[in-house]
Amino acid sequence: MESAPPIFDPESRRYSRLDAIWLTIWLVFLGGLAVLPPRLEWHKQVILLAIGIVQALEAKIIARVPKRGVFYVILLKIVLATLLLDHTEEIAINSSYWPIYFVPVVTAALYCGPWATLLWTLFTSAAYCSYLYPAMQESDLTPEASEYLGLRILFFFLAAMVVNRFSQQSRHQTGLYRELAERLAETNRRLEQAQAEARRSERLAALGQLSAGLAHEIRNPLGVIKGSAEMLSQKLEASDELPRELAGYISTEVNRLSALVTEFLDFARPLHAQREPAEITKVLDRTLGIVATRWKGKLVRVERNYADLLPLVPLDESLCEQAFLNLVQNAHEAMEESGGTLRAEVRAAAREGREGVGR
User: Fold this and answer.
1) Residue ranges covered by each domain of the chain
2) Where are the alpha helices (DSSP H) in 1-142?
3) Which residues contact 247 (CB under 8 A, 6 or more apart)?
4) Band of the pLDDT at 251, cuts 50, 70, 90?
5) What is the spatial distance between Cα 42 and Cα 48, in angstroms, rounded to a whole number?
6) Phi and psi dihedrals of 297, rounded to 5?
7) H or E stretch covering 300
């Protein structure tokens, strides 16, 4: 069962505190701009308030509209920055508040890729230079002023590239940490599964040992019961047919139980095949003979089709005989009602350069 999420998350609380600190710094920064000249320009105060609101709601806007939220936030900041210059100086391009354009530039650098950052910086610079035309209607643009304007725009691009580079590296490291955390979580999950499997194997091993011990203990009373039944059969030879038949049933069922116990122990005991070169046809003939001797159903004819000069095959005769015994017995039982013919075919075969036998 999955564990419930923690009620108190120290990590989320730490990030909330950082957001609160940054928001406080923003409010102090905007408050400082509000008390600087021109103090009585109410348009300026409203625009600064709007910038503060956009900055405070930035994360929520981007979270609410992931695909277009960044576009809306950057565009709003550019518009507000442009309006702020218009209400802080008669000739807006001469306004001392021109560094406010760094706000949308840095925002684009934080959230966008390199090319998108360059495009947003170019758009911001165009918004700033849009005040150049009305300014040139009143005075000429001197070479010194052109250089000063170009320097400001270059600083926009410089800030954009530096912040974007830092942001890209930060996102890359965050991705690596996230991937590492996912790998660690997957490793922990597999480790827990391995531990559960190990505990299950230990329980099964203990159960197997207990079962083997019980099987050995069952053999002892079975031996006593069988011996008692045989003695009872001998005592009842001259008695009525029914008691002797019942005593025979006891002995037969004890033999069945003993065979089941032997099969159980053989299954629980690890098998170690001892392979030696042998003629597989002899093992097959012996198995066919055993099944034919035990078979009580309708006649099953056996056709043997063995190739000449068959190579010796490395095998464990007892295990191979048991496997053949099961197969031949199943074949006889399939023809129990109607009888039929069982074909046993052995021929030479080769695989990956090794000689052997096949069917």
Assistant:
1) 10-141, 201-268, 276-358
2) 10-35, 42-64, 69-86, 102-111, 114-129, 132-138
3) 229, 232, 233, 236
4) confident
5) 10
6) -85, -160
7) strand 300-306
Per-residue pLDDT at 273: 67
- DSSP assigned state of 66: T
Question: 3-class DSSP state for residue 306?
Answer: strand
The whole-number pLDDT of residue 26 equals 77
Name the nearest CA neighbour of 124 among 85, 156, 92, 97. Answer: 156
**H-helix or E-strand spanning residue 358:** strand 354-358
Beta bridge partners of 358: 347
Q: How many CB atoms lie within 10 A of CB 183?
A: 10
Nearest CA-CA partner of 288 in 338, 347, 346, 337? 346
How open is the CA angle 49-51-56, to the nearest 5 degrees? 95
Pull the structure tokens for residue 128. 């700033």
C-beta contacts of 223-231 below 8 A and 24+ residues apart: 225/250, 225/254, 226/250, 226/251, 226/254, 226/255, 226/258, 229/254
Record: fold of 201-268: Helix Hairpins (1.10.287)
Token representation of residue 184: 């660690």
Q: What is the DSSP string of 309-327?
A: SPPPEEE-HHHHHHHHHHH
**Are the CB atoms for 107 and 73 separated by under 8 Å?**
yes
Digit-coded pLDDT (tens) for 306-321: 877 777 878 777 777 7
Residue 43: is its pLDDT beyond 90?
no
Task: Reply yes or no on whether the pLDDT at 240 is more than 80.
Answer: no
Span 337-354, average pLDDT: 75
Q: How confident is the model at residue 297 (pLDDT cuts 50, 70, 90)?
A: confident
Q: Classify 276-358 by CATH class.
A: alpha beta
Residue type, 86: D
Which is nearest to 104 in space by CA: 141, 143, 72?
72
At which residue do the structure tokens 């408050």 appear? 31
Which H helix or E strand runs over 349? strand 340-351
Partners of residue 303 on adjacent β-strands: 343
pLDDT tens digit sequence for 79-118: 999 999 988 888 888 888 899 999 999 999 999 999 999 9
Per-residue pLDDT, 357: 67
The Cα 161–Cα 106 span in angstroms is: 9
